[in-house]
Recover the amino acids of this structure.
C-alpha cells in the first residue's frame, strides 16, 4: 500500500520548487483558457483558436532569427495574426481567411526556421510545450498577460455576449460588430501567447475548446458556463501533470485524451439538451 | 540580352534537374486535385476540417513508424478515421466547429504519445518538422505510383459525386427533398477530402496541403460563379502558384543571407495569399459596378422576382 502511495505521489510532486512553478503556471493557463474558450466556442471560432497558436509558433522562429525573445515574437505573431484575420474577415468567409492567414504565418515560420542555421530546441519545445520546465520568471509573465486578457474580457463580457447571441439586437443597441470582433480576436491572441509556452502550440487550443464545449452541455447560464469551463480546464491540467509525472509520458497526450473524454462524457449525458427536448415535447 | 533575362528568371539547370522535374510533376498533380476538391471544401465551409486532416498526418506517420508500416498507410488510416469522426460528431452545423476541434485535439494528443514512444526507441526529432513544413524536393520515388493512383481514384469519386454533392452543399434541404442521401454524400466527400489532403501532406507537407486546398478554391470562387468553372480556375491557380513557388525556391538558392535556398512553402503560401487578396479586391470593385447598373438595386431581393414577370406582360 505504501509503495502504491509513493508511486502515485512521488516525493517532490508538490514540494520541489520547479513543480511549484509548474502547478502555478498551469493553473493560471487553465483558468485563462477556460474563460476565453467560453466565447471561442460560443462564437464558433475554434479554427481561430487553433490557427493563432500555430502562427505564434512561427513567430518564435522569426524572433530567434532576429535575436530577440521568442515569447515576444510569439505574442507579436499571434496578435498580428488576430488583426489580420479580423481585417481580412470583413470581406471573406471567416474560415477561409483563417486558413490563409495561418498558412501564410506558417510559411514565414518555415522561412525563418530554414534561415536559422542553428538548431533551436526552444522553438521545438514550443510545439509540444514544456509544462514541467517553466521557470518562476515565466510564471510571473504568464500571470501578467493573463490578468490583462481577463480584464479585457471582463470589459467585453456583456456586449460580446449580446453580439454572439443576438447580433441584430446588438447592432441596434450601438455595438459595432467589427470592432468587437477585432478586440475579441486580440484577446484570443494574448491568451495564446500565454498558453503556448506552457502547454505547446499543438495543444493550447484543446484547453480552449474542450472544457468550454463540455460546460455548455451542463448549464445554459453564461457565467456558470464560464466558471465551469475554467474549473474543468484546471482539473484536466492538474490530472494531466500528475499522470505525466507518474508515467513519464508527454503531458500533451493526457491533456488531449482527458479533454476529449470530458467532452464525450458531457455530450453523451447532455442534461441541457435533454431538458430542452423535454420542454419541446411538452409544448407540442 | 534575352538569354540574360532568361537566366535571371530560370536559374541555370532548372529544366535539367531531376528533383525539380519530379517536384513539378507531383506538385502539379497535387495542385490540380487539391484545387478541385477545395472548391467543395470552401463551399461547404470545411476549411477547418481540411486543415485538421493535414495535421492528422503527423499522428499517422508516427503511428506507422511505431508499427514499422509504410507511412502512407498511417496517413490514410488516420485521415479516413479522423474524417469520419469529424463528420459523424459534427452532424449539426452548430456542432461542426467544436467537433472538428475536439477530434483534432484527440488525434494530436495521440500523435504526441506516438512520437514520445518513437523517440524513446530511436532518434527522430526531425520527423514532425518535415511533416509540418514538408519538402517538395525530397520525395521518396516509391510514393509516386501510390499517390498518383490515389489521386485518380479521388478524382473519379468526385466526378461520380459531383451533382448530388453540389446540391447538398448549396441547399441540404432541397437535396433531402429530392431524395439525395445527404449523410452518405457527406461522408463520401469527407473521405475524398481525407485522401486528397493526406496524399498532399505526405508529398509536400501539411502546410502546403492546406494552402493548395483553400487558397486556389477561395480565389476561384471570388472570380467565377459557376462551380464547374470554379473547379477549373482553382486547379489553374493552384498550378500557377506551385510552379512559381518551385521556380522562386530554385532561384533563391543564391539569395542572401545563407545561400541555401528559401523554402517552397513560403513562396506558395505568400503567392496564394496575394492571389486571394487581388481576387477579392477585384471581385469587390466588379460587384460595385454591377450593383450600380442594376435597376432593382433599391428593392429587396424578393421584390425583383415578383416584379419582373409583370413588367414583361406575363400577368
Amino acid at each position: 500500500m505504501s509503495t502504491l502511495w509513493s508511486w502515485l505521489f512521488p516525493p517532490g510532486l508538490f514540494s520541489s520548487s520547479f513543480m511549484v512553478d509548474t502547478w502555478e503556471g498551469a493553473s493560471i493557463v487553465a483558468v485563462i483558457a477556460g474563460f476565453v474558450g467560453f466565447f471561442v466556442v460560443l462564437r464558433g471560432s475554434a479554427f481561430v483558436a487553433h490557427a493563432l497558436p500555430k502562427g505564434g509558433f512561427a513567430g518564435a522562429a522569426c524572433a530567434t532569427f532576429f535575436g530577440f525573445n521568442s515569447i515576444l515574437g510569439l505574442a507579436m505573431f499571434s496578435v498580428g495574426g488576430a488583426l489580420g484575420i479580423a481585417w481580412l474577415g470583413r470581406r471573406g468567409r471567416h474560415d477561409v481567411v483563417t486558413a490563409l492567414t495561418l498558412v501564410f504565418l506558417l510559411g514565414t515560420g518555415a522561412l525563418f526556421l530554414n534561415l536559422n542555421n542553428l538548431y533551436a530546441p526552444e522553438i521545438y519545445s514550443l510545439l509540444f510545450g514544456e509544462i514541467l520546465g517553466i521557470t518562476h520568471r515565466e510564471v510571473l509573465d504568464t500571470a501578467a498577460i493573463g490578468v490583462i486578457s481577463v480584464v479585457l474580457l471582463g470589459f467585453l463580457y456583456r456586449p460580446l455576449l449580446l453580439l454572439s447571441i443576438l447580433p441584430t439586437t446588438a447592432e441596434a443597441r450601438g455595438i459595432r460588430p467589427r470592432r468587437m470582433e477585432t478586440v475579441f480576436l486580440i484577446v484570443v491572441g494574448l491568451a495564446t501567447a500565454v498558453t503556448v509556452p506552457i502547454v505547446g502550440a499543438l495543444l493550447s487550443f484543446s484547453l480552449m475548446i474542450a472544457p468550454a464545449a463540455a460546460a455548455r452541455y451542463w448549464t445554459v447560464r453564461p457565467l456558470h458556463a464560464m466558471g465551469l469551463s475554467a474549473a474543468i480546464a484546471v482539473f484536466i491540467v492538474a490530472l494531466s501533470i500528475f499522470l505525466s509525472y507518474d508515467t513519464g509520458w508527454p503531458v500533451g497526450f493526457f491533456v488531449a485524451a482527458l479533454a476529449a473524454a470530458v467532452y464525450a462524457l458531457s455530450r453523451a449525458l447532455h442534461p441541457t439538451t435533454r431538458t430542452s427536448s423535454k420542454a419541446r415535447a411538452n409544448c407540442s | 540580352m534575352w538569354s540574360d533575362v532568361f537566366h535571371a528568371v530560370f536559374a541555370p539547370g532548372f529544366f535539367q534537374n531531376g528533383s525539380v522535374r519530379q517536384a513539378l510533376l507531383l506538385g502539379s498533380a497535387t495542385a490540380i486535385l487539391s484545387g478541385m476538391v477545395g472548391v467543395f471544401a470552401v463551399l461547404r465551409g470545411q476549411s477547418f476540417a481540411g486543415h485538421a486532416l493535414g495535421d492528422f498526418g503527423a499522428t499517422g506517420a508516427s503511428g506507422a513508424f511505431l508499427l514499422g508500416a509504410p507511412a502512407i498507410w498511417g496517413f490514410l488510416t488516420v485521415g479516413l478515421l479522423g474524417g469520419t469522426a469529424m463528420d459523424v460528431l459534427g452532424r449539426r452545423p452548430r456542432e461542426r466547429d467544436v467537433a472538428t476541434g475536439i477530434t483534432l485535439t484527440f488525434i494530436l494528443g495521440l500523435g504526441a504519445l506516438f512520437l514520445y514512444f518513437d523517440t524513446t526507441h530511436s532518434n527522430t526529432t526531425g520527423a514532425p518538422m518535415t511533416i509540418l513544413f514538408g519538402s517538395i524536393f525530397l520525395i521518396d520515388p516509391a510514393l509516386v505510383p501510390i499517390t498518383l493512383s490515389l489521386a485518380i481514384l479521388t478524382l473519379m469519386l468526385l466526378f461520380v459525386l459531383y451533382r448530388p454533392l453540389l446540391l447538398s452543399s448549396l441547399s441540404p434541404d432541397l437535396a433531402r427533398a429530392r431524395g439525395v442521401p445527404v449523410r452518405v454524400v457527406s461522408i463520401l466527400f469527407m473521405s475524398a477530402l481525407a485522401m486528397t489532403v493526406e496524399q498532399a501532406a505526405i508529398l509536400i507537407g501539411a502546410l502546403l496541403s492546406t494552402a493548395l486546398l483553400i487558397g486556389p478554391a477561395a480565389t476561384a470562387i471570388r472570380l467565377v460563379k459557376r462551380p464547374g468553372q470554379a473547379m477549373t480556375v482553382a486547379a489553374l491557380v493552384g498550378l500557377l502558384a506551385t510552379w512559381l513557388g518551385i521556380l522562386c525556391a530554385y532561384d533563391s538558392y543564391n539569395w542572401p543571407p545563407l545561400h541555401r535556398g528559401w523554402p517552397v512553402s513560403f513562396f506558395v503560401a505568400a503567392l496564394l495569399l496575394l492571389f486571394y487578396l487581388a481576387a477579392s479586391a477585384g471581385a469587390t470593385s466588379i460587384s460595385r459596378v454591377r450593383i450600380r447598373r442594376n435597376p432593382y438595386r433599391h428593392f429587396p431581393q424578393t421584390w425583383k422576382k415578383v416584379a419582373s414577370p409583370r413588367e414583361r406582360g406575363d400577368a
